[in-house]
Amino acid sequence: MKEKKEVQYRTLRWGPCVVQYTIDEEFRKVLLEEANKSNVSYGHRLAGHLKKEVKMDSSRLTKYFDEVFHVYNHALGLWLGKNQNLQYILTDLWCNFQKANEFNPPHNHGGLLSFVIYLKVPKEIKEECIEHEKVKKSAGPGSIGFFMGDSDKKNSVTNNSFFPQEGEMFIFPAWLKHWVFPYKSDVTRISVSGNIVDSLELKYMSEKGVKSAIKDIEGKHE
What we know:
By secondary structure, the protein is α+β, with helices and mostly antiparallel strands. The protein is about 25% helix and about 25% strand. A six-stranded antiparallel beta sheet has the order 1-8-5-10-3-2. Strands 4-9-6-7 form a four-stranded antiparallel beta sheet, with no helix packed on it.
């Protein structure tokens, strides 16, 4: 009988740290309330092919986002294998009211991190996605996709797609290309997105310089 041999090996972590997280119901409701209050159009600053995208006021949301930043710091520390103690600043926040046949093309953002939080996901879109997946291997209607690299390579993962659940959040490096697939159902899906910078990049600037840097970062996520 051939003697069994114990072999030890490890695989390397590769690529960006993307965190999938579910916010609590209180946070979701506060975001939804703020989104529905806004009438400040923001679509001219964004890549999406959506009729309604509005800028949001983040002044009531600091405590919620502080918790989110803590979660990402912890995950990033595990991902990189060393403790992280970064301080983050939310530079801008907006809401997407996505309707039938609307979509976000492949794009990235400015700043350090970006995120999307799904506030309302009608069941009709999920049913449409389930039907799609019965006959197709590609990501279904209403899915979000993340892409890294020029194309699919053997023995590697260059893209990930997810059909989001209500209350679900994705936090990712701002440079990571992502897109949102259209759907046909006559319903509105509501999501909130934003950009984040590391305050260490800003602490040595004057107040005027900080405002200028944030304005520049906001302009780069179009």
